[in-house]
Specification:
alpha/beta; 5 strands
Length: 127
């Protein structure tokens, strides 16, 4: 185990299942949420090392959730990696303005996802 807990936020059950499996095999502990509201509650309760969040979700989307997290002192530095099906410059700008650290387009390569996670976690520990 890496000792790191990752919160995976996605409203699609199949993505949750596949990504959780790969992250678990890579040595991470995975907790799940299906929308931003649920994610906020779990972050404040369980304090994950990193959040992987879908951009488009019901109830509260990834951008709004990221903004809320960034406005909270204790979550201002929490690494957030966004998953998005959108490939336009507006989406990119929206994500970075909200405060995400990195993003990947769907469909994504799981090895690439794990590599990006490791980079973000290492960066956080060296700060």
């Amino acid at each position: 185990s890496t000792g790191h807990t990752i919160l995976l936020v996605d409203d699609e059950a199949d993505i949750q299942k596949i990504v959780s499996k790969y992250l678990t095999v890579a040595g991470f502990t995975v907790i799940q949420a299906s929308n931003g509201q649920e994610a906020l509650a779990k972050i404040n309760q369980l304090r994950p090392s990193l959040v992987i969040m879908d951009m488009m979700m019901p109830v509260m989307d990834g951008v709004e959730t990221t903004k809320k997290l960034r406005s909270q002192e204790e979550n201002s530095k929490l690494p957030i990696l966004m998953l998005t099906a959108r490939d336009d410059a507006d989406a990119q700008k929206e994500m970075f303005d909200a405060g995400v650290d990195d993003y990947l387009h769907k469909p994504f390569d799981v090895d690439k996802l794990i590599a990006r996670i490791k980079i973000l976690l290492n960066k956080r520990h060296s700060e």
